[in-house]
Design goal:
Layout: E1 4-8, H1 14-26, E2 31-35, H2 41-45, E3 49-53, H3 64-73, E4 82-88, H4 100-111, E5 115-117, E6 120-121, E7 133-134, E8 137-138, E9 141-143, H5 145-166
Parallel strand pairs: 1-2, 1-3, 3-4, 4-5, 4-9
Antiparallel strand pairs: 6-8, 7-8
Helix pairs in contact: 1-5
Bound molecules: flavin mononucleotide (FMN).
Flavin mononucleotide binds at residues 12-15, 55-60, 88-90, 94, 97-100, 145-146.
Length: 170
């Protein structure tokens, strides 16, 4: 079986730490890390299953490295590919844009024909608006290290088990 492509910025700090926990749970042999800062279209083509790490920056926007990478993949095929998206956010300081980046990425994937998996409940979070919210779910996993770090390990554990099933790997 092909590896899961884990796309994130190797320069990120908080995101990087969460990715390491995920890889531990998934098994290193099942994962390939891709640095979005230097990734090419060919890196994207290699996988069927993806974890995209998308923290929110600049009051509800994608980090620059994602903005710069998306044009490199937007004309490639997303058909039969599954994407699980997670991202850091801060519900206390950015309650009107909480984890918007996760929502922006989900919209991008879906508008290009890919399938987004790994939706999670919004229970336990307090904010005003999130572009990542659909009904009572986020279209991915929201991690708030600033305010809810005590929940992070369990949230990751549950989500990884969930997406492994949704990817059809376990
Ligand atoms: C300048 C700045 C802007 C931010 N904007 C948002 C935001 O709009 N929405 C949100 O939920 N979190 C926001 N955050 C919080 C980050 O998403 C959060 O700290 C995340 O864990 C950062 O991950 P990273 O260090 O891996 O980039 C912001 C943080 C900074 C420093």
């Amino acid at each position: 079986m092909k590896k899961i492509g884990i796309f994130y910025s190797f320069r990120s700090i908080k995101t990087h730490q969460q990715v390491k926990k995920m890889i531990k749970q998934l098994g290193e042999e099942n994962c390939e890390e891709v640095d979005v800062d230097v990734a090419t279209g060919d890196d994207f083509k290699k996988f069927d299953h993806y974890i995209l790490a998308v923290p929110t920056w600049f009051d509800g926007e994608l980090p620059n490295y994602w903005d710069e990478y998306l044009p490199a993949i937007e004309d490639l095929s997303f058909k039969n590919k599954k994407f699980a998206i997670f991202g850091g956010g801060d519900q206390k300081n950015y309650p009107e844009n909480f984890v918007d980046g996760v929502g922006i990425m989900a919209e991008f994937i879906e508008s290009h024909g890919g399938t987004v998996v790994g939706f999670t409940s919004t229970d336990g979070y307090t904010y005003e608006y999130s572009r990542a919210q659909r009904g009572n779910q986020f279209v991915g996993l929201a991690l708030d290290i600033e305010n809810q770090s005590a929940y992070t390990s369990d949230r990751i554990k549950n989500w990884i088990a969930q997406i492994n099933k949704e990817f059809g790997r376990k």
